[in-house]
Specification:
- With 458 residues, the protein is mainly alpha-helical.
- Helices cover 77% and strands 0% of the residues.
- The protein is built from 19 helices and no strands.
- Helix 3 packs parallel to helix 8.
- The longest helix has 38 residues.
- The protein starts with a helix and ends with a helix.
């Protein structure tokens, strides 16, 4: 036992040193010392999550971090080659622009931030965080857009570690090898790597959400004495999380409440399970039902207007799906279409001559969707149990497909999908996995040929 603890501490130290060297190399590459400073701050926030990990999981982290940073650099230069700037377009560039405005105005708190209109104010908290990054960066060479992307990477790796620990503490007998593979897949999932390598608030949003779910799980599995010792710090973290979400993405407060409630009241293995679920239903209907329905309806109408009017997508597949009334059939169309986002058919429309690097990144992201499709049978197998984890997955997924269909918003679904994937695949033999994968890939190939044929006809 002592040897194991010593080995874990040595591996932890090596990981920290490796991270510092990686950050130093990035700073030298971009010739900006602030990248190292902000990266170290992000690393320090990440270290508590990886304390006391087993040595095999540290190997997963080493690999995942190298892939994440390499992807970030490839995407950075791919965006530069495609658009002449390191932004995908839209919110990422806007966030930085207004973050710079807040920094120059000397804004330190939310109270110091002026109003820029609803569409901007709803993300004031995130822009204020960017202003603080700029403020800290100023003495060390000035702000660089790579810094928040590094923080995104650390937060995503922390989510992967929390998924690993969540499953380890929730199940007595684990298939550790399969669990590590699932967590590695989550950490380097192409769709997630793309979002994390931009200056978006989605990573911070899911990070805050999952921290709360993780702590709620911790609290629900402690004895009475331990709960009393834990309740104050957990309460403080929940208050901080609510504060952050309110100013970063207030719409997700509904999801935060639902996720925590499902974790506490829908947990399996309790004698009062039935009574707790009845209490949950009463609580949701009496307290949050009306507000939630009104909020979801508002977000749904806003996104439909954006897609069908502003983007003029009425003639595309997305337009046809979103123009279908949500009930009774629209919800099923969205459920199916959401599992194929970003749509893999766009592999055949990439312009490799215009920008090879960006096209390559885009193709890998779409192949990530194909990988996700291959995992769906195992995810659904677990979801059908309708336990606490399944309900959390359905809650987040349904919120995304009902209120918005932005490809980057599906980032919030991936951690919960990874948990369901592990439970669905842990007892399946390699032979059956290979057979299932071959059938699914064959079906995707046939669908791809049909798609190409339709493109040729049109």
């Amino acid at each position: 036992m002592m040897l194991k603890i010593k080995l874990e501490k040595q591996t932890f130290g090596l990981y920290f040193i490796f991270t510092l060297i990686l950050l130093l190399l990035l700073s030298v590459f971009f010739w900006n010392g602030s990248i190292f400073v902000i990266g170290v701050l992000g690393c320090l926030l990440f270290l508590p999550f990886i304390w006391n990990l087993d040595s095999e999981m540290y190997k997963v982290l080493f690999f995942a971090m190298i892939i994440s940073f390499a992807w970030m650099l490839l995407q950075y230069f791919g965006l530069m080659a495609k658009f002449g700037k390191p932004y995908f377009g839209g919110d990422d560039e806007i966030f930085e622009r207004y973050g710079d405005v807040l920094y120059k105005l000397g804004a330190y708190t939310i109270a110091d931030c002026p109003s820029f209109g609803y569409n901007i104010d709803k993300a004031t908290g995130f822009m204020l965080i960017l202003a603080w990054i700029m403020r800290i960066s100023n003495p060390f060479g000035g702000y660089h857009t790579i810094s928040p992307r590094i923080l995104n990477i650390y937060m995503w790796l922390a989510i992967g570690v929390m998924v690993y620990k969540f499953v380890k503490k929730s199940e007595l007998l684990q298939n550790d090898k399969v669990l590590r593979k699932v967590v590695l897949g989550l950490m380097i999932f192409p769709n997630a790597l793309f979002v994390n390598s931009c200056v978006y608030r989605d990573t911070l949003s899911i990070y805050v959400l999952f921290v709360c779910v993780y702590l709620a799980n911790e609290l629900s599995r402690k004895n009475s004495v331990e709960k009393i010792m834990k309740i104050l710090p957990i309460f403080l973290i929940f208050v901080i999380s609510i504060y952050i979400l309110y100013y970063v993405r207030s719409d997700l407060l509904i999801a935060l409440a639902g996720l925590v409630v499902f974790q506490i009241f829908w947990a399996d293995g309790t004698k009062s399970k039935f009574a707790k679920r009845i209490l949950l239903a009463v609580l949701v209907i009496s307290v949050g039902g009306s507000y939630t329905l009104n909020k979801v309806n508002t977000m749904l109408n806003n996104y439909n207007h954006y897609l069908l009017v502003e983007r003029n997508a009425i003639n595309g597949m997305s337009g046809k799906i979103f123009s279908t009334p949500i009930f009774p059939f629209g919800i099923f169309l969205r459920f199916i279409w959401g599992q194929m986002q970003p749509f893999p058919g766009e592999i055949f429309t990439q312009d490799f001559y215009g920008s090879f690097l960006y096209a390559f990144i885009s193709v890998v992201v779409r192949l990530g969707t194909v990988l996700h499709i291959c995992c769906l049978p195992y995810i659904f197998k677990s979801v059908l149990k309708l336990n606490s984890d399944a309900m959390k997955y359905l809650l987040v997924y349904m919120m995304v497909i009902v209120t918005t269909f932005g490809f980057r918003h599906f980032l919030m679904v991936y951690p919960f999908a990874a948990i369901e994937l592990y439970y669905g695949v842990k007892d399946v033999s390699r032979h059956n996995i290979r057979i299932n994968t071959i059938f699914i890939l064959a079906a995707c190939g046939i669908a791809g040929l049909i798609y190409v044929s339709i493109l040729g006809i049109l």
